[in-house]
Write a structure and sequence with these properties.
single chain; 188 residues; mainly alpha; Arc Repressor Mutant, subunit A; 2 domains
Length: 188
């Protein structure tokens, strides 16, 4: 019985993701998901108590999949700046799979849905920040002498990830200015 529930939950999430992909996240609703998944409305509610829960599951799944696309083995021989570009390009490419800019669609959600969605987004960007700190630690060309006077690796990683998110929202393709700025801050 539990396996059947698990499969239904997967089906519901898959259908909700497909709706988000084709029509936008704001179009996700319990009735439409139930109809398209050929599952009763009650079963959808048993798996996702509210529409907000379902939307948050879609957002979380998006970030899980985006994070999985970052191939760390491909980054081993790259310097810090190349790694930042690679992570950004991977996330940007993944975002392009969506009909419209998925990040802009969040604006159309209710305040509760936005808050829960941002929490999940922040959780995965936290993982990316940790990855950036590791990139800093592993790059011997970055001197430990710069981490003084309130400038820490963690704050720098937050600065980088926050700006990456802004650039992703703006569909920025050219990172040369951002990378040049990072070089001035970190290695000059």
């Amino acid at each position: 019985m539990e396996k059947q529930n698990y499969n239904q939950k997967e089906i519901i999430l898959s259908v909700a993701k497909q709706i988000a992909l084709e029509q936008g996240m704001s179009r996700i609703n319990i009735r439409l998901v139930a109809k398209k998944s050929n599952i009763s409305i009650g079963t959808v509610y048993n798996n996702y108590t509210t529409k907000a829960d379902l939307i948050v599951a879609v957002i979380e799944d998006f970030w899980i999949e985006a994070y999985k696309k970052i191939d760390l083995t491909n980054l081993i021989d790259k310097n810090f700046y190349e790694k930042i570009e690679e992570v950004y390009n991977t996330l940007s490419t993944y975002l392009q799979n969506f009909k419209d800019n998925w990040l802009d669609q969040i604006v159309q959600l209710s305040s509760q849905e936005k808050q829960l969605g941002r929490k999940k987004q922040e959780e995965y960007f936290g993982k990316i920040r940790n990855m950036i700190v590791t990139f800093i630690d592993n790059d011997t060309s970055i001197s430990d002498n710069i981490w003084v006077d309130g400038i820490s690796k963690e704050k720098t990683a937050k600065f980088i990830s926050d700006n990456m998110l802004i650039m992703l929202k703006n569909n920025e393709e050219d990172l040369s200015f951002f990378i040049s700025l990072l070089k001035k801050i970190i290695t000059d």
